[in-house]
Amino acid sequence: MLRFGRGRTALAAVGVATFLAAPAVPAQAANEAVDDIVAVLRDRGLIDEATEQQILAKDAAYAKKMKEDAPLSGWSLKGDLRVRYEDFDWDDRDPDRRGRFRLRGRLAAKKMINERIEFGFRLATGTDHNSANQTFDDSFDKYSFDLDRLYVKLKLGETLGGKGSLTAGKMSNPFTWKNGKDYLLWDGDLNPEGFLYKGDWKVGGGSKLALSTGVFMLEEDSGQTDDPILYAAQLVGEHKFEGGKFGWRLSGYQYSDLDDGGKFYGKTVDSDEGNLINAFDDGEARIVEAAAYAKFGGGDWPVLIYGSLINNTTADDMLLADGTQLDEENQAYGIGVEFGSSKKVAKLGLGYFEVEANAVIKHFTDSDLFDGETNRKGWALYASKQVAKGTELKLTIFDGEGLEEEFAKADAERTRIQADVQFKF
User: How far apart are CA 279 and CA 267, in angstroms?
Assistant: First the structure.
């Protein structure tokens, strides 16, 4: 065995340590270089096997500490920026035309605090509850950028044969999906706050089930004894078959303490543009929904068919003191079809939607097709194309109008065009 002095060993160790301390070298490259240097020193007989293992162990510990101490260590980041041109053409309004540019930016981050607990948040432009858009308005003004999500999630692991989690805070909406356009119950920018349990199960044969149930604050109101609250539950199924898949969902929503005179009641009950006074039963609303989709084929032109049906079971007929008869006005439905994929040739879609005055809670409905109101009907024609990685072009044409004239706003009949360039990272 070739012997060597302590001086050579110390010199070799100092050389490796000096290399480790060089800050300009990426961690992965530094680790690989240390491995190569130590191997050369060992082959030349300058260090023995024990010294080699000692240096490599110190290098691994150092690399681990550097990774843990890095500012963004363990964080997962993603975001998007959308530039939009929007044009309105009203049939019964003066002026009857309007165009504007708008911008939306969002940045989301999450991190596993430990193996069970996830912390996350998202920043978004805009201050409206159902829009993150900023209109090109004043070149010398600043954009608003607020937290629209802030939550902590406890992953339960195996629960009743599936995976479960508990989430608290302001979170992404667990009751919507991306199988077609989901315009009726929820605006796409809404993020509920409260407590959620979610479970997922694989039931064999390519089928899956998911359960989401929770309680959410609608609005804390110091002027009421009890605050308006939403209790919600949804069961979702997905089943694969040869050449495609089929999915469905059943949802139930219980809105409580929607008392006349409360702040939330005032936001949703308005005979000109929202729910009527017979939408609720003693401050309660119970809304049920059934939705389904089927997707066929693959390649460049898969086909998706989707639809949903909604009923507010608490709305009832009412005879007003002046003799006016209010009907239930408690149903909504939508149906549509999509062809293709934006990541391939293109995606094209067409959908039709109706929402009666009392069918859903006006304060939460879609702001693009329905302007955030009920008693509306309309078509949505849309197309999208991914032109580069993380870059997508979109065009949507909404043609809407009032459903019942006596409850509809004068400017409900209009065409709205949105042309978007969206960047994701």
Answer: 13
> Do 24 and 106 belong together in one domain?
no
Note the pLDDT tens digit of each residue in 264-288.
888 888 766 789 999 999 999 999 9
The residue assigned the tokens 């432009």 is 125
Domain extent for 48: 6-69
Q: Alpha-carbon torsion 15, 18, 22, 25, what sign? A: positive
Partnered with residue 424 across adjacent β-strands are 80
Higher confidence at residue 293 or residue 162?
293
Instruction: Identify the CATH number of the domain in which residue 84 sits.
Output: 2.40.160.180
Whether 33 is covered by a domain: the verdict is yes
Tally the domains of the chain. Answer: 2
Residue whose structure tokens are 């998706």:
304
Question: Are the CB atoms for 180 and 308 separated by under 8 Å?
Answer: no
144 and 260 belong to one structural domain? yes
Same domain assignment for residues 415 and 328: yes
Contact, 396 vs 417, CB < 8 A? yes
Separation of alpha carbons 349 and 106, rounded Å: 26
pLDDT in tens, 216-235: 999 887 777 789 999 999 99
As a whole number, mean pLDDT of residues 70-95 equals 89
What whole-number distance in Å separates Cα of residue 304 and Cα of residue 387?
A: 22
Q: Report the alpha-carbon distance of residue 148 to residue 127 in Å, rounded.
A: 9
Helices 6-20/27-43 angle, 10° precision: 160
Shared domain for 64 and 94, answered yes or no, is: no
Q: How far apart are CA 336 and CA 175, in angstroms?
A: 19
- Given a contact cutoff of 8 angstroms between Cβ atoms, the answer to whether 21 and 15 are in contact is no
Boundary-marking domain end, from 30, 45, 69: 69
Q: Are residues 34 and 135 in the same domain?
A: no
